[in-house]
Design goal:
The protein is an all-alpha fold. The chain is built from two helices and no strands.
Length: about 70
């Protein structure tokens, strides 16, 4: 981004400088809270990633009595 481009674009209304500052403060605090509480999920082991034990195998197919 260039330095001339605005960080916030107002698409409706005419907010005051104080209102814009309040919005920036709330959004910034929300991002800080999200970063502080974020956790990295543990990667699944190979057993959990595989298709084992996920579904019951149907054994009716191919068993023709005749």
């Amino acid at each position: 981004m260039s330095e001339d481009s605005p960080l916030i674009r107002v698409v409706a209304g005419n907010p005051t400088d104080e209102e814009l500052a309040a919005v920036v403060a709330v959004v910034s605090e929300s991002f800080v809270h999200e970063v502080e509480t974020a956790t990295v999920p543990e990667p699944a082991d190979r057993w959990a990633r595989s298709g084992r034990m996920r579904r019951y195998r149907r054994r009716e197919w191919g068993r023709f009595a005749g």
